[in-house]
Design goal:
Layout: H1 14-18, E1 21-27, H2 29-32, H3 36-46, E2 51-52, H4 63-72, E3 74-81, H5 89-101, E4 105-110, H6 114-119, H7 123-135, H8 137-151, E5 156-158
Parallel strand pairs: 1-2, 1-3, 3-4, 4-5
Helix pairs in contact: 4-5, 5-8, 7-8
């Protein structure tokens, strides 16, 4: 009888053991931090879901260093897309990284229409125009692609504030 040795580095399950967070929350702080995002965070936390939200930084950590790591070590993401989401290069960088990871990403359309997110219309049109002047067409193109992907997903539409 032959005994098979499993190389843990080759196992698809290995990456699951490295994940620290169940959910990464991406949101525009000024729009939803003290309302929808806080309520969602508390509800998930109460159920034992390990959620990364930007307030879980440890002493000496910076968002610039911690966000890519948190996205990498999260098994899924919730992107709370609000009217000012695309005014933040931080949010758009997060969204692009989330899309690049290929893990489950669930959009919440908070006070915005999914078609406006997908087509970058309404408040997103102005934000992307401003960002193109500052960051260039190539970088903003990556962000636009991520918004189109997320705007095309089935998510939760929340129009109440």
């Amino acid at each position: 009888m032959e005994i098979l040795e499993v190389d843990p580095e080759a196992s698809p399950l290995t990456s699951a053991f490295k994940l620290r967070w169940d959910v990464f929350l991406s949101f525009r702080g000024e729009d939803t931090r003290h309302t929808f995002t806080l309520n969602l965070f508390q509800a998930l936390d109460t159920k034992g879901v390990q959620v990364f939200k930007d307030n879980v930084l440890e002493e000496g950590d910076t968002l610039k260093e911690k966000l890519p790591e948190a996205i990498t070590y999260s098994s899924s993401s919730v992107a709370i897309i609000s009217k000012n989401y695309a005014s933040s290069h931080w949010c758009l960088d997060e969204l692009a990284m989330i899309c690049d990871m290929g893990r489950p990403a669930f959009p919440v359309f908070y006070g915005v229409e999914p078609r406006d997110v997908r087509n970058q219309k309404g408040p997103f049109e102005e934000h992307f125009g401003t960002l193109e002047k500052e960051y260039g067409v190539e970088k903003v193109g990556r962000w636009r692609k991520a918004m189109k992907i997320v705007g095309g997903k089935i998510g939760f539409v929340c129009n109440s504030r």
